[in-house]
Amino acid sequence: MDWKFANDSGYSYTMSIGLWDTVAVPADGTVVHPGKSSFLLGGTCAYDPQRDAVIPGALGAKVTTESFTTAVSMKAIISSSGLDLEKYSGAGVAPAREDKRIQVAQSFESGPSCKAFSSENSVGYGEAGGFGVKWTDPQQPGATLSHHFFIIVKNYRSPATPSGDQDLLNAMGIRPISSGDTSDAASVFKEVGEPTQGKRNYRGLTLSGTSASGS
Question: Which pTM does this prediction carry?
Fold first, then answer.
């Protein structure tokens, strides 16, 4: 799914978010990212191969600024609310503001990192936040960039949902949020021509990989 981003200074890029299917974790607990073979999940975030869901993903950017190089910054948020989806009605535990059920493992040149969020993760409620990447070196017009990550959903499998809580993945989404140096408003990248709710975009992907949009 693609979005067009730009800032007030006229720099622009097209952002994409892609998700792979939920992967089966082998007995040794190490998962190789299907889009970046050098990125291994084992040891990056704490997770239980028998209970947790692991979803590989990637952020992509294509620089669309003409005649100028662009320093690209991208950010995304995972949340159960804000998309035009039915309320969670599965047999497991519904998303909550303080459950810390979501982990995002990222791959950087400096090494891997892990961030944790609640499954509700709503903008305007305390610790809501996103994850992302910034390329400090300016990129040439037409350049393409990618940033890989894993989403971990804790307790996806349980006695109540032994085959996995697919309703939870259907009820949660990933979408972009504005990104950049907030001390300089002219450098903050925002979506072009689309409504936003606070800093959150209406359009996004469910963790099942289907597109969804808010009303």
Answer: 0.91
